[in-house]
Design a protein that fits this description.
The chain is mainly α. It has one domain. The protein has 4 helices and no strands. Helix 1 packs across helix 3. The two termini are about 35 Å apart.
Length: about 130
C-alpha cells in the first residue's frame, strides 16, 4: 500500500516537472480529472446500486459505473500521452537531444519509462554524454 501511495506521489512529481517544461501542458488536469471521474463514478454507482438493488433499475448504476470508469481511464491515458508530447517537444526543440519516446512503452510503463528517460537526461546534463 505504501508503494502505491509513493507511486502516485512520484507520478504527481513527474506531472509537475512536465508542467515546468511545458506550461501549456494539460496532462495534470486530464489525469486528475480522469481519476476523479473514475473513482467518483464507482462511488456513485456503488451507492445507487445499493439503493436500487431490489429494483428493475439495478442495471443503471452498473452502466453508469462502467461508463465513468472507462471515461476516466481514457482521460488518464490521454493525459499520459499529453505528457509524452510535452517531453518530446521540449527535449527536441529547447534542449535538442533528439529524444524519441515509444508509444507502446508510454502506454504500458509510463511512470517508469518517463523516469528512465529523466534519469538519462539528468546524467547527460551532468556528464555531457547521453547514456
Amino acid at each position: 500500500m505504501v508503494c502505491g501511495f509513493f507511486a502516485l506521489y512520484w507520478f504527481y512529481t513527474q506531472m509537475a516537472f512536465v508542467k515546468k517544461l511545458d506550461p501549456a501542458s494539460k496532462a495534470m488536469k486530464m489525469i486528475f480529472g480522469g481519476w476523479a471521474i473514475a473513482f467518483g463514478g464507482v462511488l456513485i454507482g456503488a451507492i445507487l446500486g445499493a439503493a436500487l438493488s431490489d429494483s428493475a433499475l439495478a442495471v443503471v448504476p452498473m452502466l453508469l459505473t462502467l461508463v465513468c470508469y472507462l471515461g476516466g481511464i481514457i482521460s488518464v491515458i490521454l493525459g499520459v500521452f499529453n505528457m509524452r508530447t510535452s517531453i518530446e517537444r521540449h527535449y527536441n526543440t529547447v534542449e535538442n537531444i533528439g529524444l524519441k519516446l515509444s508509444p507502446v512503452m508510454t502506454f504500458f510503463f509510463n511512470l517508469y519509462y518517463f523516469q528512465y528517460h529523466f534519469a538519462r537526461i539528468a546524467e547527460w546534463k551532468k556528464t555531457g554524454r547521453l547514456a
